[in-house]
Amino acid sequence: MPITRRRLIQSAGAASLASLLPRAVFSQGAGARKAVIHADQEIGTIRPELHSHFAEHLGSCVYGGIWVGKKSSIPNINGYRQATVDYLKELGVPVLRWPGGCFADDYHWRDGVGPAEKRPKTVNTNWGGYTEDNSFGTNEFMEFCKLIGAEPYLAANVGTGSPEEMRDWMEYCNYPSGSTLSDLRAAGGSPEPFRVRYWGVGNELWGCGGNFRAEQAAAEFRHFATFARVFGNVRPFLVGCGPNQNNLAWTRGFMDTLVGNRQPDGYSVHHYSDANLPPLAYTPEAMYAQFNTFRRVEQTIVQQRNLLDSYDPNRRVGLFLDEWGVWDHGISADDERRNGRLWQQQTMRSAVAAGLGLNAFNRQADKLYMCNIAQMVNVLQSMLITDGPEGKNCVRTTSYYAFMLFKPHRTKTSVHTQSDASEAPLANGPAAGGRGGGKQATEPPPDLSVSASRQGNQLIVTLVNPRHDTDMQVDCAVRGVSCRSGSAQILHDPDLNAYNSFDNQNRVTIKPHSVNVEQGRVAVDLPRLSVVTVTVEAA
Ligand code: AHR
User: Fold this and answer.
1) Do residue 447 and residue 526 come from a single domain?
2) Domains contained in the chain, number
3) Is the predicted pLDDT of residue 363 greater than 50, yes or no?
4) Of residues 336 and 64, more confidently modeled
5) pLDDT at residue 30, as a whole number
6) What 3-state DSSP class applies to 226?
7) Cα–Cα dist 524/532, whole Å
8) What's the gap in Å between 156 CA and the centre of ligand 1?
9) What's 463's domain CATH number?
10) How far apart, in whole angstroms, are the C-alpha atoms of residue 509 and residue 492?
11) Which of 69, 150, 385, 393 is the one with CA 20 to 30 A from 308?
């Protein structure tokens, strides 16, 4: 395909790809692709927090996925599913957000503390009206975070809660000892304070969190922030409620209302990638429409940060993508009955989607503070899937492995990349087919996606081939370092609906892959539907 028919993507400040590469390279064949890694053009640090997670009291995420109870016949550590703990420890979870989601603005933390047998039974009205026995509460959540090595992030209740309730939760968690609330925490088995830094002030206040207008949500923020107290020297890092997707009017309304007042420390945007198909019934066309939403996600990051910068030029307010991931609607009632609400299988398509999202985060690393994939176990784009709350099986999903492939980027410095693919941000505007945007009839299918990072003499390059019908031969010119040697790993299945089942748990896993590294050049084959990470030793 000639270059004139390609949309050339170029990161800011970099020279045109066409000027760096011989023109002939664009006619090497249907699968030939070119990219340039500018190892000396830094974007920013890839914070480990961009690989953070979210767990809600929803379906079988917490009950069954994380917590099976101390008396369960499922192998467990003090009530926590053993396999969940082991697999998540291996993955590494920088931060875990809890207890919601929509659940958070209906949740009263006092229901989940004290002796478990005395805790009230409440109703989870957001997610199916089941009875919540509150056996998994604050202490249990903190213990889980400790087990998997995650930093906790609590979402406080604005919708049906009060500043007092949030303030007391802070005291319960962070005051060392001697107050009634801190002693209650100690009596629950945790004499040491939890020292929780991250506090969300409401969730989706534009929707399930109370249907507020932006100005009202900001007024709530002002009120709650006033009573966000320092206990045990922990200054709460307050995350204000931003918009769904790229709603710039919401951000203006919210930030205008806070001028001259306490600013949030973080600002939370939600951006899902919806589609109206069950996870195992995707067609290439539907898959491409879903993949293209990641170009909108990237655009949201750029434009929301840009707008925040106009209020906050020194970037003291961190941009959070508090909830993201693929949301496949149309799960069968049987699946939901067996496995819980919003349970969805993870396929090769989901892994590619994760790769597109994580590559975008690397490219925009200077603009992002934290990103939380929704959700950790058994819900939406989960890392792990169990066979129902009572089932003993626990499978690492395709998305888990995609996250694994990005782990080497953590703490490295993201650098500019270019490719001859069509990853350019899309035009603004409402997207059909759900909250995250569905099919846009005129959009071209996505193409090669690339990101890279560097630390010392190591360069990490992640490449994603989102096409179901094209094997790519990628030739990367590397500028700014001398490449010496390299190795690669791949996640791949030619079937977009392939997944790791309970009978075939390792169908889609990471495998070694061949790569050709020489001075100034990395050449690697990307079979259709694949995510590849190349580690280059440079000088
Ligand atoms: O993750 C599922 C739901 O999506 C969350 O509860 C809510 O915040 C969002 O709408």
Assistant:
1) yes
2) 2
3) yes
4) 64
5) 87
6) helix
7) 9
8) 15
9) 2.60.40.1180
10) 8
11) 150
